[in-house]
Amino acid sequence: MIKPxxxxxxxxxxxxxQYSLREITRALKLSRNTVRRILRTxxxxxxxxxxxxDTPLAGPRSPRLHEPLDERFTRAKGNVVRLQQLLQGExxxxxxxxxxxxxxxEAQLREAPQRSGEYTxxxxxxxxxxxxxxRVSVGEKTLTAQCAALILAxxxxxxxxxxxxxxxxxxxxxxxxxxxxxxxxxxxxVIDNSSVILAGGAGEDAIIAPxxxxxxxxxxxxxxxxxxxxxxxxxxxxxxxxxxxxxxxxGRTFRDFADLNAQALxxxxxxxxxxxxxxxxxxxxxAAYVLEKPYLKPLPAALPxxxxxxxxxxxxxxxxxxxxxxxxxxxxxxxxxxxxxxxPGELQxxxxxxxxxxxxxxxxxxxxxxILPQHHPRLVRGARRERPEEPLLRAAHPLLDRYVTExxxxxxxxxxxxxxxxxxxxxxxxxxxTYPHEPFLAAxxxxxxxxxxxLGRLEALVLKYVSGEFFALDSxxxxxxxxxxTLE
Length: 488
Known about the structure:
CATH topology of the largest domain: Nucleotidyltransferase, domain 5
Shape: elongated
CATH class of the largest domain: Alpha Beta
Helix content: 40-55%
CATH architecture of the largest domain: 2-Layer Sandwich
CATH superfamily of the largest domain: Ribonuclease H-like superfamily/Ribonuclease H
Number of strands: 14
Distance between the termini: 123 Å
C-alpha cells in the first residue's frame, strides 16, 4: 500500500512538468512501475498528464486495453504462467510476469484472499492424527513406508511411528501405542476421510467403522472426520510431516523397522518435543504437556489386545501365505485349515484351537519364506537315513553287503538311482529267508560277477542252485523235460 503522502508528491512533481519520470523515481526512491501506477490514477480520474519521451504510460498496458484477459484467464484455469504462454503463442505478446499479475489483480479476475483463521484448543480437548508415505532406507534398499503421527492440539506433543503398510490392524496398534506414550487421551481425535477408519461417508456425514468406534471408545475418545478439502482443520499434524521429512529422515540409516521406530521415538523425545515454540510462548511441547496431562482421560486398567484373525489352508509345500510372504506349518497339516492370528510383529498359527507355530512377521520383504526346522525335516539336507531292512542284510555276509550297496544305487533293470529301494530290499530279504543259505550266496556271487540286479532273475538263479535238492530231476528227464530250460 502506497502512502497518500507519496502519491500526492508524485502527482505534484509530475503535473508541474518540471520533472521527468526518471527524475521522480530517483528523487522519491521509488520504482518506475510504482510511479506509473500512481500516474494511472490521474488518467482514470480524467486528469491524464502530458506524456514525455521517458513516460510510456500506456506502453506495456496496451494489450489489456485492446482485448480483455477474461477469456484467456478462464482457459488457463487461473494459472498466470499459462496465461503468459497463451498471450505469447496467440498474439505474440511477451508480457512480463509481474505486469501480468498486476493486470489480473486490477481486473479482479481472482478472488481476494480471505483472512486466515486460527484454531484454539483447551487442554485435553483434541488430538489429531494422520499418515503420510515417506521414502526411507531400511537395510540395503529404499522403500516407501507409511509414517503415522499423532499430536496433542493444546501442547503439540508429537508421537511418530513407521509401518510397511497401514491398515486397521496397524491403525489400532498405533493409536494404542500413542495414547500409552501420552499416558492418556483427549476427548476428540480428528482424522481425514480415509477408509482405514471410516466405513462410509465423509466429513459431517462420516460413518466410523464399528470396530474402530468400539476400539476408540475403549481408550476414551471419539473420532471426528474433517470436511473434505479442508486439511487445515488438522493443521497441527499436517505441519509436523514436513518437519519429519526435513529433520528426522535426512542423514539417518536404519537396519530394520524396529530400528527405524526406535530412532523415531528418540527423535520425538529429544528434538521434536524439546524444541521451544513461539505458538506456546517459547515453551517446549514437553513443558506444555505437563500443564495438559492432568486433564487427559486416563487409560483403562486393561488395554484391548490388537490382532486380526484370518483363515488359510496349508499348501502342498507346507506353507501358509500372509501379506505376500510364506510361513511354514508342520507337514501333517498340508491341505488343512489353519487360523492365523496376526499381531503387529508376530504370527501365531492355530489348528483346531491348538497353537502349532509362532513366526516373527516379515515386514521389509515380499515373497520371502519363514521356515521352522521342526516343520520340514525332509527339506533339511543331511546324511542318508538307513532303511530298517539294511542292517538285517548287511550283517549276514560280505557278499550280501556288496550286493545291497549296488542294489540301492540302481533300479530293478540295472540302471542307476533306484526309484523304490525299500521295496527291492524287502524282496531281497524275503528271498534270503525263503531259500537255503549256501545256494543263496552262490547265486549272489554269480549275480555280482555279471552285474545281475533283477531280483526276479536272481530268484530264478537261486532256484537253479537248489533244484537238485528239492526236485526229482530223474523223473523229469524220463519225461523228456530239461530242468534248466524249465527254469529259464
